[in-house]
Hints:
Elements: E1 22-26, H1 30-36, H2 41-61, E2 66-73, H3 81-100, H4 102-105, E3 107-112, H5 120-133, E4 140-148, H6 150-163, H7 171-177, E5 188-191, E6 210-213, H8 223-234
Parallel strand pairs: 1-2, 1-5, 2-4, 3-4, 5-6
Helix pairs in contact: 1-2, 2-3, 3-5, 6-7
Amino acid sequence: MFGFKPKRRKPQTVIADDRLRHVAFIMDGNGRWAKKQGMPREYGHKAGAETFRRITGYCKDIGIKIITVYAFSTENWKRPKNEVDTIMSLLLMYIEEAIRDADINRIRFIFIGNRSFFSRTIQTQMNKLEAVTVKYNNDYILNMAINYGGRDDIVHAVNSLIASGAKSVTEDDISANLYTSHTPPPDLIIRTANERRLSNFLLWQAAYSELYFTDTLWPDLTDRDIDKAVADFYARKRRYGGI
Ligand code: IPE
Ligand code: IPE
Ligand code: MG
């Protein structure tokens, strides 16, 4: 009643440390989110792109040094042309914005996946974004998986080794030739939208990653959901096969 002031809830923000250097996201549920509002799937991808900006910003704020996002898989070309075109145009818009804001964001961008499938314009802008942000390597890294497949990653690595004359390969050789060779494997993989599978994401790298699944659809994901996932991660014990 009078004079009653609701208590301000303290945000449960957890600050990431060396145990949680690398977080990867399977950003799923854009289509279902749009459907729920009676809108076309493309609308969900636009909302998803906004969530991507917000969530990557939040992860950086809480000290996560390396973020990898699954934005487009080698299998996503199966989707209707309209939908693929929308995703490509959102991608181009985002890359151009990231080039403009490179010195504000201080994030190194790296594209992982087979980029030869993309239009010349997109490829040029991808290369440009990587080139203008390479100097931020020691601050933050954002890997964007586009036309990425875990199987393709391994095949690509093995073919690079064969091309360099290898007759047989070791685990270290493969790790060193993956698209992600510049980063440690993900400590935590978060998948939204109530699916519990990897869908060909980081198959090799995920060998000992912690997995976190939430029912929340990607466009609805909030900073508090990240706090929850991070708290859940810190409550786990990673054994790597030991005791
Ligand atoms: C994830 O959302 C975005 C991409 C795969 C590009 P979806 O488009 O897969 O959304 P749902 O799973 O159909 O809801
Ligand atoms: C995985 O989501 C790919 C991305 C998030 C980019 P999908 O929606 O393509 O995965 P499936 O088809 O449900 O396994
Ligand atoms: Mg999906």
